[in-house]
């Protein structure tokens, strides 16, 4: 009688052990294994550093050396020299981006003759030297107070009463508004920086001129392509010759060489035959010429653009410069502005696209000459216009200087050193802002979508971008403009590479009901018997305990 | 402006001298504003400097002829109004013009009686056939293309580009079907647009969709500066226009047919605005109710020109100054160059590396758990075992 009971309990024990062990295997081995095999590989990203960078608190500092020439300072004031002062200004763009402008003024005296001021050595990138000359100096013409030189120098004329009875610090404080005015022209200003950051800021009705400038200039890019095209709609009448290679080498290349810290440029040229403007010019008898008025200019570009090629190998922005020689029946062709006045340069440009110049050749030959006529184009005139347009399109500021200012002519490269510095400041800030936005939005995106795989190379790019950004901000603070620009370019390259990596495509949108639909048929048949047996064991144990209690009683 | 208004209310309690002064100041300010509007006015009407268009047809097979015709007619209009091919990304999922069932090869008609051939001679299709997938579409939008992709297959827009996106095909509530095998959901599309916004790849976006229940596709958008139009509301079907008996299929969808008719009246200098576009194809003509969404758009739709998206009107500035150049042109020397030039001979890579293919090692395949057939077979074996040796062994498991 005993045996069946014993075997029965023994078998029941064995069954319970089996159920328990299966449950243990499933929970201890199965669940972690499933978790590990279905998780996506996500390399570590420096999220806290990215958050820190996102605040974008930049400090731009410029070194200004103020040199007093003889006759502007008294001997007591001379004793205080050299003197260093720091001026700080805080500017906010869109509330949460803060910038400080800090200028270091170091003051020294120059007691030599006025004329030898020009021979003093030039200052490094990003810094400026102001020479303060006495009122009666003959270096400047009568009505100009400020002369802005080609290199990073400026001459300020100051009246002799200013320095009388004051200490050197007070004299500097007196001169401060004028120095600030010159700094607005020669170095970075609040409007420049806000214009550069205008795309981060929603439509801001202030500083319309700044925004128009920012819309015109190309965005910062590591390289640009420049294409010069000669459009000849009438080859039967005009046989055009242009020495484009020589002209580019002489006139354009110096500017591009000077701009090489900012970007790389590649130039090509082409000639298009039988290409017409999309607009019919009207004959204007008052000036005896065919005219294109300003409103119809907007429709000229599109039909031509379809025929211009582009270098398919790179994704750099393209600047197109077109030279249009009107056909014999529509010569001369003049462009009129909104007030029906003739435009002296006979050219127009389109923001972020390029420029078109109309070159009339009807004056070069007699009406009875034998067609086709050989015409050699005056490249100096043409390149003068293209160079001006190139400057505008690349973002060299073009606002006229305040009254009383005289700006030196540009020189062979067409760009003054301080203009290059201004461009470098704005490019540097733009690069840093763009790289920061890219990295921040990438981090946000990867955070939001937990299914995206983050490979090691992406994490590497992000870390190197964050590194370069931190270094660039530090260099900007120290005032080393060249290094800051280089680092910002590296930062932007790394951040763009990380953001646009093809492996980051999010095609993994699984709504929750789909996830359940996948996992339930796999796990439910396995879990139900285990759960049921565990429940059965638990209820049996409870029953036994109740029986034991009942037995005790 | 607000500052002056408050100032004005303050001094209305003051004396008439201050009143006059304020009036004069306001007058000057208004004149100043007007002057500014004239000089910088054209920039602020829209804020864009270039236009792009992404036109996608997502369905294949001959009986979906109308979707290809839809896309091609929008392509024609957009080209006519000025957007060049280099700024259009055209994705057609099937080739109707050279389909073997096409009685008139090399043509795709949009009007009955073969009035208008929208295929033409100079169509440039960037993504064709099986290249039109959800992945490629999202890659084009977000810019995450492999580095070898040519320029014509990329959307190289910047923060001042207005983009027109046109989708057509078969859709449902919250999804659009691609190639009869996969779908894109409205959440994925909204996320793609948000990524475009984060990287400032557009200034303003116009999204037009002509599918059944098209309005569901723009429900989930949350990025700014997007305007969306759809041919039908959720729960409604978009219907096709007339069939052509000679070709044997329906040629166009109703919404796009009337959209094309509307666009035929637009020329590059036209001043029609978006409110006119919203009125295209009312319920009487379209049977379905077209819908639109403008709450994410910053500007008022009445001030948005049709040519802001469908055409490409460039902003133009007169060049006021020129630089005076006096140096003579340098004569380039060819001498030293020719010595250095080493003739490097280039050759094409083997198109079909036969030797590599023949001697290839088999690829390492990932291990997959056994398929259903194998599982079923093993279950059968186990059951047979338990049946022969007794059912009692089963109870050890349960």
TrEMBL record, chain A:
Transmembrane segments: 17-35, 516-535
Protein topology in the membrane: Multi-pass membrane protein
Compartments, as annotated in UniProt: Endoplasmic reticulum membrane
Keyword flag RNA-binding: no
Gene Ontology CC: GPI-anchor transamidase complex
Pathway, per record: Glycolipid biosynthesis; glycosylphosphatidylinositol-anchor biosynthesis
Alphabetized UniProt keyword annotations: Endoplasmic reticulum, Glycoprotein, GPI-anchor biosynthesis, Membrane, Transmembrane, Transmembrane helix
Main location: endoplasmic reticulum
GO aspect biological process, one term: GPI anchor biosynthetic process
PANTHER family attached to this UniProt entry: GPI TRANSAMIDASE COMPONENT PIG-S (PTHR21072)
Family from the record: Belongs to the PIGS family.
Protein's recorded name: Phosphatidylinositol glycan anchor biosynthesis, class S
Species this protein is from: Nothobranchius furzeri
GN (gene name): PIGS
Automatic annotation (TrEMBL), chain B:
Any GO CC annotation of this UniProt entry: GPI-anchor transamidase complex
Biological processes, Gene Ontology terms: attachment of GPI anchor to protein; clustering of voltage-gated sodium channels; detection of mechanical stimulus involved in sensory perception of touch; GPI anchor biosynthetic process; protein localization to cell surface; proteolysis
Family: Belongs to the peptidase C13 family.
Species this chain originates from: Nothobranchius furzeri (Turquoise killifish)
InterPro entries: GPI_transamidase, Peptidase_C13
Pathway: Glycolipid biosynthesis; glycosylphosphatidylinositol-anchor biosynthesis
Ranges annotated as spanning the membrane: 7-30, 372-390
Keywords: GPI-anchor biosynthesis, Membrane, Signal, Transmembrane, Transmembrane helix
Coiled-coil ranges from the UniProt annotation: none
Active-site residues from the entry: 170, 212
Protein name: GPI-anchor transamidase
């Amino acid at each position: 009688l005993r045996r069946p009971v014993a075997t029965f309990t023994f078998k029941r024990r064995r069954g319970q052990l089996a159920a328990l062990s299966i449950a243990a295997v499933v929970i201890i081995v199965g669940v972690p294994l499933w978790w590990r095999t279905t998780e996506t590989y996500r390399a570590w990203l420096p999220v806290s550093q990215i958050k820190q960078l996102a605040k974008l608190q930049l400090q731009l500092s410029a070194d200004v050396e103020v040199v007093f020439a003889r006759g502007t300072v008294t001997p007591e004031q001379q004793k205080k020299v050299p003197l260093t002062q720091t001026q700080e200004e805080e500017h906010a763009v869109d509330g949460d981006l803060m910038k400080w402008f800090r200028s270091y003024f170091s003051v020294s005296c120059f007691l030599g003759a006025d004329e030898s001021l020009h021979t003093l050595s030039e200052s490094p990138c990003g810094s400026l030297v102001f020479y303060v000359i006495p009122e009666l100096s003959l270096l400047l013409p009568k009505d100009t107070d400020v002369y802005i030189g080609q290199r990073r120098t400026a001459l300020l004329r100051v009246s002799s009463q200013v320095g009388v009875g004051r200490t050197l610090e007070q004299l500097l404080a007196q001169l401060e508004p004028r120095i600030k005015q010159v700094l607005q022209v020669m170095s970075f200003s609040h409007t420049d920086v806000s214009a550069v950051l205008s795309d981060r800021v929603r439509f801001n009705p202030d500083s319309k001129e700044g925004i128009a400038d920012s819309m015109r200039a190309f965005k910062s890019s590591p390289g640009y392509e420049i294409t010069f095209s000669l459009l000849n709609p009438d080859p039967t009448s005009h046989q055009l010759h242009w020495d484009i290679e020589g002209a580019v080498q002489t006139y354009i290349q110096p500017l591009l060489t000077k701009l090489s810290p900012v970007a790389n440029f590649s130039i090509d040229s082409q000639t298009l035959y039988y290409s017409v403007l999309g607009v019919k010019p009207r004959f204007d008898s008052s000036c005896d010429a065919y005219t294109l008025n300003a409103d119809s200019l907007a429709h000229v570009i599109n039909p031509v653009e379809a025929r211009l090629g582009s270098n398919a190998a790179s994704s750099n922005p393209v600047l197109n410069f077109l030279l249009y020689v009107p056909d014999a029946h529509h010569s001369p062709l003049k462009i009129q502005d909104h007030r029906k006045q003739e435009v002296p340069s006979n050219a127009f440009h389109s923001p972020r696209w390029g420029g078109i110049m109309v070159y009339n050749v009807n004056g070069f030959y007699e009406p009875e000459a034998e067609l086709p006529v050989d015409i050699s184009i005056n490249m100096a005139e043409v390149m003068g216009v293209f160079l001006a347009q190139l400057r505008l399109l690349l973002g060299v500021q073009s606002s006229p200087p305040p009254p009383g200012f005289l700006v030196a002519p540009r020189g062979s490269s067409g760009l003054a050193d301080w203009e290059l510095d201004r461009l470098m400041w704005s490019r540097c800030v733009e690069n840093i802002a763009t790289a920061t936005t890219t990295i921040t939005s990438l981090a946000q995106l990867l955070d939001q979508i937990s299914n995206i795989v983050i490979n090691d190379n992406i994490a590497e790019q992000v870390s190197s971008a964050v590194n370069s950004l931190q270094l660039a901000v530090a260099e900007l603070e120290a005032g080393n403009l060249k290094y800051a620009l280089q680092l910002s370019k590296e930062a932007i390259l790394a951040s763009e590479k990380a953001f646009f990596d093809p492996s980051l495509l999010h095609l993994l949108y699984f709504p929750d009901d789909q996830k359940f639909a996948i996992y339930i048929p796999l796990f439910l048949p396995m879990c139900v018997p285990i759960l049921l047996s565990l429940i059965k064991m638990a209820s049996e144990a409870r029953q036994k305990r109740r029986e034991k209690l009942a037995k005790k009683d | 402006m607000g500052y002056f208004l408050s100032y004005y209310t303050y001094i209305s309690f003051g004396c008439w001298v201050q009143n006059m002064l304020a009036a004069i100041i306001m007058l000057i300010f208004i004149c100043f504003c007007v002057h500014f509007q004239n000089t910088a006015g054209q920039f602020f009407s829209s804020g864009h400097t270039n236009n792009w268009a992404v036109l996608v047809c997502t369905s294949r097979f001959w009986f979906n002829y109308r979707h290809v015709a839809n896309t091609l007619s929008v392509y024609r209009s957009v080209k006519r109004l000025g957007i060049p091919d280099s700024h259009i990304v055209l994705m057609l999922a099937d080739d109707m013009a050279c389909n073997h069932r096409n009685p008139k090869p090399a043509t795709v008609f949009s009007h009955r009686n073969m009035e208008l051939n929208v295929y033409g001679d100079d169509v440039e299709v960037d993504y064709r056939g099986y290249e039109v997938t959800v992945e490629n579409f999202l890659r084009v939008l977000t810019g995450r293309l492999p580095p070898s992709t040519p320029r014509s297959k990329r959307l190289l827009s910047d923060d001042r580009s207005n983009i027109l996106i046109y989708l057509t095909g078969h859709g449902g509530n919250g999804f659009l079907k691609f190639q009869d095998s996969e779908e894109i959901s409205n959440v994925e599309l909204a996320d793609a647009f948000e990524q475009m916004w984060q990287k400032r790849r557009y200034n303003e976006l116009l999204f037009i969709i002509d599918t059944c229940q098209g309005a569901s596709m723009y429900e989930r958008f949350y990025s700014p500066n997007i305007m969306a139009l759809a041919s039908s509301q959720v729960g409604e079907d978009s219907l096709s226009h007339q069939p052509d008996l000679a070709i044997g299929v329906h040629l166009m969808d109703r919404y796009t047919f009337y959209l094309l008719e509307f666009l035929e009246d637009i020329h590059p200098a036209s001043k029609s605005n978006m409110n006119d576009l919203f009125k295209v194809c009312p319920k009487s003509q379209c049977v379905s109710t077209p819908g639109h969404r403008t709450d994410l758009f910053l500007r008022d739709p009445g001030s948005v020109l049709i040519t802001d998206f469908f055409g490409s009107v460039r902003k133009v500035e007169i060049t006021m100054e020129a630089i005076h150049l006096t140096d003579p042109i340098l004569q380039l020397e060819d001498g030293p160059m020719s010595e250095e030039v080493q003739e490097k001979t280039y050759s094409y890579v083997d198109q079909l590396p036969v030797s590599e293919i023949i001697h290839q090692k088999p690829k390492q395949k990932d291990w997959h758990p056994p398929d259903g057939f194998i599982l079923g077979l093993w279950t059968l074996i186990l059951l047979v075992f338990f049946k022969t040796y007794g059912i009692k062994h089963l109870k050890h498991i349960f």
